[in-house]
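Request: Mind sharing a record?
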Amino acid sequence: MAACYLLVLLIFVVAGASVEGKGKLSSHYYKSTCPKVLSIVEAVVASAIKKEPRMGASLLRLHFHDCFVNGCDGSLLLDDTSSFTGEKNAVPNRNSARGFDVVDNIKSAVENVCPGVVSCADVLAIAARDSVTILGGPNWDVKLGRRDARTASQAAANNNIPPPTSNLNQLISRFNALGLSTRDLVALSGSHTIGQARCTSFRAHIYNENNIDSSFAQTRQRNCPRATGSGDNNLAPLDIQTPTSFDNNYFKNLINRRGLLHSDQELFNGGSTDSIVRDYSYNPSSFSSDFATAMIKMGDISPLTGSRGEIRKNCRRAN
């Protein structure tokens, strides 16, 4: 009987610890320790986007690329050190990840008011949400309370961030491995309604593939030469219609075979996600709602909480 009671108690304690662990992220996490954090971040993000509308997409992408590599822990922001090679120069980020100066500005503004309180990982999560809302997209309550990693991994970034050459099965598998559903995949891919991509990311799609509108391909070819090494960093908007407005035109583009990346058009290419793309193209409110839900789920990927990690003073280096 005593053993049975002990087993029940153990199950209760373990279950309670699990619930507590999941509950450590909260939209009110800084309510008493840094009540102005949301308004501080929003002001810096708004200023940056006003100067350069593309910056909203860049900040959103940083949050994605952070969360997909060992969880949402701010590791992407770390510069290389003598003890590790960071993620900034991994293939998915080299010459394309940007906005680090804006993150520095946000962190500095927050530190001036609440020194040593708000993590860089949380700064990324808030800045991503603000970028979306400022550009006309949905709003959501950002869960906070993440702590910052003390190290980073270039190898993990190379292996875990889906490349633009991914097929549908590879995309679904990668997202599923992180606890994100196929619907989450399609919704989160809708972030490509803003931002730009480099020629090297879409060259093969516009020259070698058939599931692309011919006039769209010709338009993109004018600024992206066929030869590798020529114009590699030339930019094109991911959404040809409204590249600085967060809307559902991305999905309309896919239906018209005007997805810029191979991985974009894979979402509407006779596969299992075609119906979701159609739904979002017809129902912008459905897309907005699902995108907000998926962003919250993505923000929950393996955060460091409790005594794990640290609160960095400078997002570029561990304390």
The first strand starts at residue 196 and ends at 198.
